[in-house]
Amino acid sequence: DADVTQTPRNRITKTGKRIMLECSQTKGHDRMYWYRQDPGLGLRLIYYSFDVKDINKGEISDGYSVSRQAQAKFSLSLESAIPNQTALYFCATSSTGNEKLFFGSGTQLSVL
Amino acid sequence: GENVEQHPSTLSVQEGDSAVIKCTYSDSASNYFPWYKQELGKGPQLIIDIRSNVGEKKDQRIAVTLNKTAKHFSLHITETQPEDSAVYFCAPKKGGYQKVTFGTGTKLQVIP
Predict the structure, then answer these.
(1) In A19-30, which positions are buried (b, 16+ CB within 10 angstroms) versus exposed (e)?
(2) Which end of chain A is more exposed for a tag (fewer CB within 10 A), N or C?
(3) Which of B78, B99, B62, B64 is nearest to B14 (CA)?
(4) What pLDDT is stored for residue A41 in this prediction?
(5) Could you say which residues of chain B have pLDDT below 50?
(6) pLDDT at position B78, please?
(7) Would you say A20 and A39 are in contact if contact means Cβ atoms under 8 Å apart?
(8) Cis (ω within 30 of 0) for the bond into B8?
(9) Cβ count near A54 (within 10 Å)
(10) What phi and psi values does residue A85 have, to the nearest 5 degrees?
(11) Do A43 and B44 count as a contact with CB atoms less than 8 A apart?
(12) Top-confidence residue, A39 or B71
């Protein structure tokens, strides 16, 4: 089983719809992240969390919100999806004191 | 913020040849220099990293070299194989800060 699991793998939705992407991990890491990948732009940080009660904005948080329900779960919500949020979304984890990031397999989101 | 440039954006090599990808960064306080490999349909995976107190690190066919004065680090792959075909990202980071700036990626194609 994957250490960092993202659901769904693919999602097509319409403009204005609310959508949630979920991430769970079995690595026991305390830190979790949501990244967005667009062709030619690399990966950009949306939100990150160092612990259950800790939420921090990344460089492109507008239009997104997150919830850290438990140490192992971190969900990303788009309250009202718009077409320019069409992208590949990755969840990642790390542990305090270790710089290495561990990524899930990604969620391809298309907003029509 | 950190400005990261990665070159080349695409690279084709014959199987068995070497490949070199360069990453230039702007923040002199960066002290952690990883390379991630992203295969088709998967999330990025760390393949090698180096810290600022080390000039070079090798792991079998891959190596990373760091020039802190010039603010660049490079990924070297020797004896390339078809399974090395992927997109490679650099992601320099400075300690104490959570923001990681990813390069825009290099698509490596190894031709059998």
Answers:
(1) bebbbbbeeebb
(2) N
(3) B78
(4) 80
(5) none
(6) 97
(7) no
(8) yes
(9) 12
(10) -95, 5
(11) yes
(12) B71
Q: Which chain B residues are within 8 Å of A44, Cβ to Cβ? A: 102
For the stretch A67-107, pLDDT in tens is 998 999 999 999 999 999 999 999 999 998 888 999 999 99
Per-state percent for chain B, helix, strand, coil, to nearest 5:
5, 50, 45
Q: In this predicted structure, what is the pLDDT of residue B53?
A: 84
Chain center to CA of A94: 14
Using a CB–CB cutoff of 8 Å, tell me whether A95 touches chain B.
Answer: no
Cross-chain residue pair A90–B102, CB shorter than 8 Å: no
How is residue B84 written in tokens? 């090395």
Residue B4, CB-side half-sphere exposure with 13 Å CA sphere: 30
How far does the CA of residue A16 sit from the closest CA of chain B (Å)? 27
- Which of A7, A99, A100, A103 has the most B C-beta neighbours within 10 Å, making it the best mutation to test the interface with B? A99
For position A1, what pLDDT does the model report? 57
Backbone angles phi, psi at A84, to 5 degrees: -80, 5
pLDDT at B52: 85
Q: DSSP secondary-structure letter at A22?
A: E
CA–CA separation, A77 and A65 (whole Å)? 5
Contact A42 B102 (CB under 8 A): yes
Is B41 within 8 Å of A59 when comparing Cβ atoms? Answer: no
pLDDT tens figures, A9-33? 999 999 999 999 999 999 999 999 9
